[in-house]
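FIELD: query
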Amino acid sequence: MFKWKHSRIVFWISIMTILIFTGCFGSPQAKPEFKPKIKVGLVLAETNSARNQYLIAKMKESAKSLNIKLIEGDSKNNSEQQKTQIEKMIKEKVEAVIMQPINSDVAKDFISMLEEQNIKIVIIDLLPENVSVDAFIAPDYVKVGELQAQYILSPEIELKPLIIIGEPNSISGKILSGNLKQLKNSSLVKDLGVKEVPDKSTSKAYEISKNEYSKNSPNAIIAHYEQYTSGIMKFLKETKLEKKVAFVTMDINKESLPDILEGNLIAVDTMPNLLAQVILETTDSLLKTDSWKYDMQINNGTALVPAKYTPVRIINIDNLYLLNERFPELEKLIKSGQITIPKQENKNEKQQKKTKLKVKTTDGKEYEVTIPGEIEKVEMMPDEKQE
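FIELD: result
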């Protein structure tokens, strides 16, 4: 009996010793592996426009969930400054660079600098000719131009349009091709003017629209950059032409919201929220798998470039609410009464409203008729011919 008890004591002491030295019930948990953030350079042509500011904000938001550290660079619309930013990214040892070229000519050299360092290259908005990059992502700028032209053509009146463009070797060249595709084939266009505004200057856009109106009196204006919008609108309001001259631009800032709400302005939105998502997802996929889901390959002279065009849309008084997230002040403007939305008759709604009328005569017969619209008053009058 004593031996049996002794054996049990020895057994439990052995078990306890094993647990103390090996840990309780299972192997010890490994420490979580620390993954440093992937460095990605973001070199934009400028950061003053509302569109690019929103693009940066959305990309920063997406970068957090993808474990990406965005290193920003502002080229200030200056080619030498953009070169400095590219050099900065190389020194930072980034694994990829997202670049928005200022123009297609000088960007070629910057792409070569990145290629020499085996850095992944994602080009947005403007693809320089005869270069090979890992990805090209842009809004469909030809479609932007088509939508702008279709808007001013829609009233079907004789047109004398003025198109205010940027440098031909910038995205403005793509937009212009979309404009001309629609306008040159229309019998409504009698006189078409195209004027270049250098440096995306608001004041120069004002001067050119003023000078061109004094010479040719255009009844429609198309602008290719949001920076032109306030200058052109300033001229239209000074001359009380904002309701007489159709004006369509590209991209939207908070200063243009009241004019869209008042029906003075239409804009084509390049949807920077969607664009930012596609850019970051593409960069992440390239870094992890060396591939991405592109829609097409562009024959770019010396190479086939994988590419994706993101959608664009017309923004007017009817669908401006789609921008509530981007412009929180929009709802405040309407609620405060600073902006009043003009009531527009909805012809479709009016046609859909019908009234069913039931009539019972003195001899017991019943008649039923459906009348379009709403009945305000019913009068009973005997037929004098039958009296």
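FIELD: remark
The longest strand covers residues 38-44.
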